[in-house]
Amino acid sequence: MLTEFLLTRFCALRKFTLLFLWLLSTGQLLKAQAPVAGIDGKSSFTARLMNIEAATNEVFRYNTTLHNGDGKSKIVELKAELPIGWIISYKVDGNQVTSLAMDAGKTQDISIEINAAANAAPSKYKIPVKAVSGQETLVLNLEAVVKGSYGLTLTTPSGRLSEELTSGSHQDIQLIVKNTGTLPLNDIDLSSQLPANWEASFEPSKISRLEPGKSQELKARLKVPDKTIAGDYAATFTASNPNSNAPAAFRMIVKTSLLSGWIGIMVILLSVGLVYYLIRKYGRR
C-alpha cells in the first residue's frame, strides 16, 4: 500500500513538474503574471523645460512627453490658448500633427514650437497646452519669456543703392549700419558678393557692439579691375551676426575711363589718316 501511494505521488509530481517546465518554456506563465507595461491608470503630459526665454523673432521650442496610462487606446487632440498673433505647431518624429493615436500604455515624445507675434512686448507669457481625449484633458502650462527683438539694417546716408564707377578705379562707398531692434547686437561682420575679380574691403571691418536704436557709419572701398567692360553690375554688401543679418544690393554702373576714351579716338583718327594717305599716294595709279 505504501509503495503504491508513493508511486502515485511521484507520478503526480512528475506531471506537475513537466507542465510547469512547458509553461515556462513557452512563456505562458510569465505572460500571465506580468502586467502590461505603462498601464497604471495615470496618464501624464510633461515637459523637460516649462520656461524658455528668447527674442521676439526666435522660435520657442519645448520638448514634451505624453503618456497614456489607460488600459485602452485613444485619440488625443492637441490644443493651446495663445496670445493674439502667436503661432504654435506640434511635431512627432519630425512630422507636424494636431492629434495622434495613443495605444494603451504608450509614451510619445512631442516637440512644440511657438512663434511670438512680431509686436509682442517684452514680458512673460503663459501658454496652456492641452491634450484632450474623450472626457480626459491633460494641461501643460508652458511659459514663454520674450526678452525683446533683434533687428539690423544696412543702407547709405542718402538711401541710394547705385554707384557709377570707372574701369580700373577705386571707389569709396559710405554705408550705415543701424540696430533697429530692442536688444544689443554684438560682433557684427561685414561681407560682400561681387562680380568676378572685383575686390572690397571695409573700414572698420567689424563692429564689436551696437546698442538698440544706434547707428554706425563705415566705408566700403571697392576696386574695379582694369579692362572691365562698361555696363551694369550687381554687388551685395551684408552686415550680419548670429542673431540678424542685413543685405544691401547695389547697382554698379561701370564706365570706361576718359583716358581710354581719348586713346580710342586717337586710334580711330590715326586709322582714318592712314587710309587717306594711302589713297592719296596710290589711288591714281
Tell me what the structure shows.
The protein has helices at about 1-25, 30-35, 260-280, and strands at about 45, 50-55, 60-65, 75-80, 85-90, 95, 100, 105-115, 125-135, 135-145, 150-155, 160-165, 170-180, 185-195, 200-205, 205-210, 215-225, 230-240, 245-255. The longest helix is centred in the first third of the chain and has 25 residues, at about 1-25. The protein is built from 3 helices and 19 strands. It is about 20% helix and about 50% strand. The termini are far apart. With about 280 residues, it is α+β, with helices and mostly antiparallel strands. Strand 18 and strand 19 (about 245-255) form a beta hairpin. The model is unreliable at about 30-35 (pLDDT under 50). It folds into 2 domains: about 45-145, Immunoglobulins (Immunoglobulin-like, Sandwich), CATH 2.60.40; about 150-260, Sandwich (Immunoglobulin-like), CATH 2.60.40.10. The strands form 4 sheets. It has a 5-stranded antiparallel beta sheet with strand order 1-3-8-5-6, with no helix packed on it. It has a 5-stranded mixed beta sheet with strand order 2-10-9-4-7, with no helix packed on it. The protein has a 5-stranded mixed beta sheet with strand order 12-19-18-14-16, with no helix packed on it.
